[in-house]
């Protein structure tokens, strides 16, 4: 084969490969889509097409990070015992995790919570093409009681329950939803996970798979220890992976003035195969 033909063929294949996201575990976005996203202005409502979906967002860098984790590396991938698993998503943000669960199990029954008003609007937009009967989208925070709670809305991934100030939002006690078997429980609630997990500890035996993103401070390591002990007491095996490297020099006293010093992804699965309802 002539060199020129071989070169042109390889070049064409390379271009076509970069025009679409790779299949399976790996890259979630094409080279050209990433290039496009990097040059978008932040805080401007934008939209791209991904896997036949329209994805609406305001912050392209958050979108790229989330797509890489959720769609590329598939950190929520799990094996369900039936084609319509029960999933509870606490901290659904703009809906990428819900989209992944629907792609993994198209018949799944999902309740998703997102208290940030701007995020929830995008969540609804991104999930509009899907069957409303199997989706229960709630503009609420999950907490240790029902009612209202102060919330710091930042219109992105950093929105969280606030100790004071903030905006009053509706909240739901997570424990009330765990009285029946749950196939997958995702908790990514920006620092509120310690209180919420303790409140529903007596019902964790109803959960088969649990994803927990831990947000904490170095001098509050007892909270992490307590949560891991709760998982062990309720029959979970777990694996821990760093979610963000926030402290450059751990041996030096260079504490962060704001935000979390520790962010860990905790992947927990019940060691036994069956989940029996505990009320």
TrEMBL record:
GO MF entry, a single one: methyltransferase activity
Gene Ontology annotations of biological process type: methylation
Gene3D superfamilies: Vaccinia Virus protein VP39
Residue span, Methyltransferase FkbM domain: 89-238
Keywords, alphabetical: Methyltransferase, Transferase
Keyword check for Cell membrane: no
Keyword Methyltransferase carried by entry: yes
Coiled coil: none
Protein name (database record): FkbM family methyltransferase
Organism per entry: Chitinophaga lutea
């Amino acid at each position: 084969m002539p060199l020129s033909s071989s070169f042109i063929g390889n070049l064409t294949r390379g271009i076509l490969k970069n025009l679409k996201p790779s299949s399976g575990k790996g890259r979630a976005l094409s080279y050209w889509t990433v290039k496009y996203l990097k040059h978008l202005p932040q805080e401007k409502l934008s939209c791209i097409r991904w896997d036949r979906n329209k994805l609406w967002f305001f912050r392209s860098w958050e979108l790229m990070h989330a797509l890489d984790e959720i769609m590329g590396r598939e950190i929520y991938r799990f094996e369900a015992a039936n084609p319509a698993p029960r999933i509870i998503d606490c901290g659904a943000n703009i809906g990428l995790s819900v989209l992944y669960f629907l792609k993994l199990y198209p018949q799944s029954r999902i309740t998703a919570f997102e208290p940030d008003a701007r995020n929830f609007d995008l969540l609804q937009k991104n999930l509009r093409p899907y069957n409303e009967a199997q989706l229960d989208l709630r503009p609420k925070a999950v907490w240790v009681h029902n009612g209202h709670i102060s919330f710091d809305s930042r219109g992105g991934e950093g929105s969280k329950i606030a100790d004071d100030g903030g905006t009053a939002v509706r909240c739901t006690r997570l424990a009330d939803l765990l009285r029946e078997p749950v196939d997958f429980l995702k908790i990514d609630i920006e620092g509120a996970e310690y209180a919420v997990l303790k409140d529903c500890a007596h019902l964790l035996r109803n959960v088969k798979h649990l994803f927990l993103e831990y947000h904490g401070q170095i001098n509050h390591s007892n909270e992490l220890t307590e949560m891991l002990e709760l998982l062990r007491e309720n029959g979970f095996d777990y694996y821990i992976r760093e979610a963000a490297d926030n402290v450059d020099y751990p041996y030096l006293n260079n504490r962060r003035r704001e935000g979390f010093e520790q962010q860990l992804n905790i992947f927990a699965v019940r060691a036994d195969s069956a989940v029996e309802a505990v009320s």
